[in-house]
Task: structure prediction
Amino acid sequence: MREVVSTDLGPKAIGPYSQAIKANGLVFTSGQVAIDPATQLVIAGDIVAQTERVMQNLIAILAAAGTNLANVVRSTVFLKNMNDFAAMNEVYGRYFTTQPPARSTVEVARLPKDVLVEIDVIALA
Result:
């Protein structure tokens, strides 16, 4: 079974994709960027502020799917600048204090809306 996950507490999709898909006991989120769901605008701020917003977006989408960060098994972090790794990692680490998920972090040439970070996760449903 495949179920589309959607919530007003997370940013609306800005293209032909879903906020998340729940299938076969897993939740696959789309990459989240630092968009405030209330305004649908990218928040102002540095990598710390943007990572905080991304994590809040992921929390909201996972909650809509009936799960949470404790059930995340895999994440991918896309950074505009690898020099932001330490600051992003400090924020990220506050959300995954015990048994953090497997993760890849890569630097990319450009991200949607020119944000500094994008994160997607896979979680147990």
